[in-house]
Structures are given as structure tokens and as C-alpha cells.
Amino acid sequence: MWLSTSTGRIVMTKSGMYRQFGPDTFANLQRKIAVKQYVGPDELARVLRANARAPIPPEIHDYLCDFLERKVRAPAGRRADIEKPLPLIKKHLIPPTYARYLAWLKRRKRSMGLKGWKTIREADWWEGPPNERAARMTCRRLRPAMDWRSVQNIVSEANK
User: Fold this and answer.
1) Residue 18 has pLDDT above 70, yes or no
2) 45-54, 69-78, 83-92, 127-136 — which is least confidently predicted?
3) Which of 33, 45, 133, 153 has the fewest CB atoms lying closer than 10 Å?
4) Angle, to 10 degrees, between the axis of helix 148-158 and the axis of helix 94-111?
């Protein structure tokens, strides 16, 4: 929400709902604790700093005490990092690229066949039925760290 101050400047303020249930609020932290979601030390510190003058609710106080006494366990395994490029490639680039190649190969098979010209006939990605070729061509184009069967699995998962 934008407000104009008496000095003529424009200042952005947070709406009431955001102030009440935003990421740096006790209400958001209480919700996570209620559903038994792990709250890490960075998030705890951020919320406590953002609400320094407010009294700490009992649920958060109990969680904080358990956390400091090391009774709260972090989830096992490595955290999923959505900022890395491979998950983004898997989700947003592989399925449309595969679909484009597959449509082209089907049209080509119908019109002139999949024999191909001499230069590509011996290429390793120009083998098999159109769906395999499309997967191999997608691998060659995007160069993800996977084989063509993994590309087919990703496309199959995206089509569900």
C-alpha cells in the first residue's frame, strides 16, 4: 500500500495482514511449530529480532528452550535447494524442449521418414523411435548432467 507523507514523498507501508501474519511474525512461527515443522536458528533469530519489544508467546518460548537444550532435531538429509540451476532446468526447460523436438520428429517421420541425411545418420542421438530421439536431442541441446532416459522420466512426471 502506498501512502503520501506530508513531505510529498511516497512511502511503501506493509498492509495489516502482512504485519499480522508475515514471515517475521510470531503468528507465522506459531503456525510452523503447531504443525511440527522445523524452525531453524536463522529464522528464530530473525523473528525474535523483528519482534524485540513484543512478549514471546508460550509456544515459541517452549520451542526456543527445547531448541537451546538440543531436543529439537533438524530434518535428516540434505536440504532441497531450489536456487540451483538443475532443478529449474528440469522443471521449466526440459519438457517444452522435448515436446518441440518430438513434434518435429513426428512431422518429419510422416512426411519424409526418419532416415536422415548422411551427416547425422551416424550420430549417436539419431537412433531409435522419435521419442528416444527427442530425448537424446534434448540432452544434447541442454546438456544437463543426465542421460536420455532421465529426460524421458522428467517429461513423464511433468505430464502427470
Assistant:
1) no
2) 83-92
3) 45
4) 100
Number of Cβ atoms within 10 Å of the Cβ of 47: 19
Could you tell me if 109 and 123 are in contact, meaning their C-beta atoms sit under 8 angstroms apart?
no
Number of domains in the chain: 2
What pLDDT shows up at residue 107?
Answer: 94
Are 7 and 55 found together in one domain?
Answer: yes
* β-bridge mates for residue 10, sequence order: 4
State the pLDDT at residue 123.
83
Answer whether 74's CB lies under 8 Å from 38's CB. Answer: yes
What is the reported pLDDT for 154?
A: 92
* 94, three cell numbers: 526440459
Domain residues for the domain of 26 are 2-68
Contact 153, 94 (CB under 8 A): no
Query: φ and ψ at 11, to 5 degrees?
Result: -125, 135
Q: Give the integer Cα–Cα distance in Å for 158 and 144.
A: 17
pTM: 0.51
Q: Does 77 map to a domain?
A: no
